[in-house]
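Q:
Just now I want nothing more than another pair of eyes on a protein record. Here is the record:
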Amino acid sequence: MSCNNCSTETAGIPKGCKSNGSCGTGSCDKLTVFDWLSNMSLPTGQAPFDIVEVRFKNGRKHFYKNAKKLPICIGDIVAVEASPGHDIGTVSLTGELVKVQLRKKNIAVDSEEIKQIYRKASQRDIDIWTASREKELDVQRKSRLIISRLGLQMKLSDVEYQGDGNKATFYYTADDRVDFRQLIKELASTFRIRVEMKQVGLRQEAARLGGIGSCGRELCCSTWLTDFRSVSTSSARYQQLSLNPQKLAGQCGKLKCCLNYELDSYLDALKGFPKTDTWLKTEKGIGVFQKMDIFKGLFWYAYKDNPVHWITLKVDQVNEIIEANKQNKKVESLENYALELNFESEKDVSFTDVVGQDSLTRFDKNKRRRGKKRRNNRRKTNRKNA
């Protein structure tokens, strides 16, 4: 992830602007939190909050306590406590806004999850960190060969080295439970590091790898989305979307998270709508539901014996017919209601060609005319020669 003016190295440091993740475009990493309290000073006598947020590879973030009262700012590279050894990360957030992030993630200030910051990273720490990051692609490629040789039903998606280079975390996805005890032995002996296996879901894998969605923008899970809520096919049904797996599934193979974005608006609009499986009983025949426009409040019905001819009705009209049917009454026909709707629509709707464009087939018509002229000229020349 990077802004338009720079691309990032393996260590996450921008090549172009050299701003270390704090450029004016909102930084070069994903899941960035804008510090809207940065220009406000603390009240007199109040000490700054001593917990900071540190970012690691692929947007992984943790909170660390600045017990040594180091002068730390956003963008500083720090050495933090790890198990075992130490890790290297970039400070992504400081100050009072960290309290809001802790409350959002249900982490107490005195929690054991919050570890210590050792020091600001020295040049030696950064060199070891950069060298470790450069090994990750080669280690990932060799690890996949080992996995295929052992015949394990798992997919290795990413490898992340710890800042001191003594430990590596292998992220994988699997459908069933995997016995990787032999795999850990071979990985530890091959690369001479401590190995940690961490299973992630398909959505988490897509968030770590990133990509471009069908909308043409970067994936929501890799830029701003932090909580992965369950998405069901009923979300697509409420929004009148075709149940096509190729269109509804994202890069993770699951249903797209954006199906939930407008779902509440559709559910609110559907509160006064009747059920679609209800038949409309008339003297002319039984009306069967065909389709509807939720936000315009329109229904399309057709008679059971004539499904080709559709009749447009409003929601109030459909509810009126259903109430009459509940009282064992039949309306005369659906056309009586449809005539009123057509009259109103023709009265209100007017079309204006603001662009002033002609038909898209205007060029084809000209070609046909030219062809006719050529044929007529050929016929005249043939008559003269005859």
Q: What stands out?
A: The chain has a mean pLDDT of 82. The first strand starts at residue 51 and ends at 55. Residues 234 and 361 are 41 Å apart (CA to CA).
